[in-house]
Amino acid sequence: MGLSTHVLDTMHGTPAAGMAVALFATDGSEPRCIKQLVLNQDGRNPDGLLLDASSLQRGTYRLVFEVAAYFRARGVVLPEPNFLNQVSLDFGVADPRQHYHVPLLVSPWSYSTYRGS
Protein backbone atom coordinates (compact mmCIF):
# COMPACT_ATOMS: atom_id res chain seq x y z
CA MET A 1 0.00 0.00 0.00
CA GLY A 2 2.99 2.33 0.41
CA LEU A 3 4.51 4.97 2.66
CA SER A 4 3.16 8.47 3.30
CA THR A 5 3.69 11.42 5.64
CA HIS A 6 1.76 14.51 6.69
CA VAL A 7 3.15 17.42 8.74
CA LEU A 8 1.07 19.82 10.82
CA ASP A 9 2.50 23.04 12.24
CA THR A 10 1.03 23.17 15.77
CA MET A 11 2.36 26.68 16.40
CA HIS A 12 0.27 28.20 13.62
CA GLY A 13 -2.45 25.54 13.44
CA THR A 14 -1.80 24.85 9.76
CA PRO A 15 -0.23 22.24 7.49
CA ALA A 16 3.55 22.71 7.21
CA ALA A 17 3.54 23.86 3.59
CA GLY A 18 7.05 24.40 2.26
CA MET A 19 8.89 22.19 4.75
CA ALA A 20 11.74 20.19 3.22
CA VAL A 21 11.78 16.46 3.94
CA ALA A 22 14.22 13.67 3.07
CA LEU A 23 13.62 9.92 3.16
CA PHE A 24 16.50 7.52 3.79
CA ALA A 25 16.86 3.75 3.77
CA THR A 26 18.90 2.80 6.85
CA ASP A 27 19.39 -0.95 6.41
CA GLY A 28 22.97 -0.66 5.18
CA SER A 29 26.09 0.63 6.91
CA GLU A 30 25.33 4.18 5.75
CA PRO A 31 21.89 5.79 5.32
CA ARG A 32 20.96 6.07 1.64
CA CYS A 33 18.81 9.00 0.50
CA ILE A 34 15.83 7.73 -1.47
CA LYS A 35 13.84 10.92 -1.94
CA GLN A 36 13.90 14.65 -1.16
CA LEU A 37 10.80 16.80 -1.40
CA VAL A 38 9.05 19.97 -0.26
CA LEU A 39 5.62 19.59 1.30
CA ASN A 40 2.62 21.03 -0.53
CA GLN A 41 -0.10 23.35 0.83
CA ASP A 42 -1.68 20.41 2.67
CA GLY A 43 1.62 19.47 4.38
CA ARG A 44 1.96 16.36 2.20
CA ASN A 45 4.18 15.07 -0.59
CA PRO A 46 2.96 16.75 -3.79
CA ASP A 47 3.49 13.46 -5.66
CA GLY A 48 1.33 11.42 -3.27
CA LEU A 49 3.04 8.46 -1.64
CA LEU A 50 6.69 8.70 -0.64
CA LEU A 51 7.06 5.08 -1.75
CA ASP A 52 4.37 3.14 -3.59
CA ALA A 53 3.51 -0.47 -2.78
CA SER A 54 5.99 -1.87 -5.30
CA SER A 55 8.86 0.27 -3.92
CA LEU A 56 8.27 -0.15 -0.18
CA GLN A 57 10.49 -2.91 1.18
CA ARG A 58 10.79 -4.60 4.55
CA GLY A 59 13.50 -2.79 6.51
CA THR A 60 14.37 0.39 8.34
CA TYR A 61 13.92 3.97 7.19
CA ARG A 62 14.48 7.53 8.38
CA LEU A 63 12.46 10.65 7.63
CA VAL A 64 14.31 13.94 8.22
CA PHE A 65 12.18 17.08 8.54
CA GLU A 66 13.85 20.52 8.22
CA VAL A 67 12.00 22.10 11.13
CA ALA A 68 14.14 25.17 11.92
CA ALA A 69 14.41 26.24 8.28
CA TYR A 70 10.63 25.92 7.91
CA PHE A 71 9.86 28.07 10.98
CA ARG A 72 12.47 30.70 10.03
CA ALA A 73 10.87 30.92 6.57
CA ARG A 74 7.54 31.54 8.35
CA GLY A 75 9.14 34.50 10.15
CA VAL A 76 9.52 32.83 13.54
CA VAL A 77 12.51 34.24 15.44
CA LEU A 78 14.42 31.28 16.84
CA PRO A 79 17.22 31.43 19.41
CA GLU A 80 20.76 30.45 18.42
CA PRO A 81 21.21 27.63 18.69
CA ASN A 82 17.58 26.77 18.14
CA PHE A 83 15.96 24.00 20.16
CA LEU A 84 14.97 21.83 17.16
CA ASN A 85 16.89 21.96 13.92
CA GLN A 86 15.96 18.75 12.16
CA VAL A 87 13.56 16.11 13.38
CA SER A 88 14.69 12.62 12.41
CA LEU A 89 12.23 9.77 12.73
CA ASP A 90 13.62 6.25 12.47
CA PHE A 91 11.02 3.55 11.86
CA GLY A 92 10.73 0.02 10.61
CA VAL A 93 8.55 -1.59 7.98
CA ALA A 94 7.78 -5.16 8.97
CA ASP A 95 5.07 -5.86 6.38
CA PRO A 96 5.35 -3.87 3.14
CA ARG A 97 1.88 -5.08 2.10
CA GLN A 98 0.45 -2.71 4.74
CA HIS A 99 0.22 1.07 4.50
CA TYR A 100 2.71 2.99 6.65
CA HIS A 101 1.72 6.58 7.40
CA VAL A 102 4.18 8.63 9.47
CA PRO A 103 2.64 11.98 10.52
CA LEU A 104 4.51 14.71 12.37
CA LEU A 105 2.97 17.34 14.64
CA VAL A 106 5.61 20.02 15.21
CA SER A 107 6.38 23.40 16.74
CA PRO A 108 9.78 25.06 17.25
CA TRP A 109 9.91 23.44 20.71
CA SER A 110 8.20 20.06 20.44
CA TYR A 111 7.06 17.28 18.17
CA SER A 112 5.09 14.06 18.24
CA THR A 113 4.48 11.25 15.81
CA TYR A 114 2.60 7.99 15.57
CA ARG A 115 1.84 5.31 13.02
CA GLY A 116 -1.22 6.65 11.27
CA SER A 117 -3.61 5.05 8.86
Structural summary, described in words:
The protein is mostly beta strands and 117 residues long. The protein has one domain: Sandwich (Immunoglobulin-like), CATH 2.60.40. It has one helix and eight strands. It has a four-stranded mixed sheet with strand order 2-1-7-8, with no helix packed on it. A four-stranded antiparallel sheet has the order 4-3-5-6. A hairpin with a 6-residue loop joins strand 3 and strand 4. The radius of gyration is 14 Å and the shape is globular. 22% of the residues are buried. The model has no long low-confidence stretch (mean pLDDT 97).
Notable traits:
117 residues; 1 helix; four-stranded mixed β-sheet; mainly beta; Immunoglobulin-like; four-stranded antiparallel β-sheet
CATH structural architecture = Sandwich
CATH homologous superfamily (4th level) name? Transthyretin/hydroxyisourate hydrolase domain
Percent range for β-strand residues:
35-45%
Sketch the topology as an H/E string, one letter per element: EEEEEHEEE
Question: Count of DSSP helices?
Answer: 1
Overall mean pLDDT stands at 97
- Major sheet, described briefly? 4 strands, mixed
The largest sheet has its strands arranged as: 2-1-7-8
Structural class: mainly beta
Helical amount: under 10%
What would the CATH topology be?
Answer: Immunoglobulin-like
End-to-end distance: 11 Å
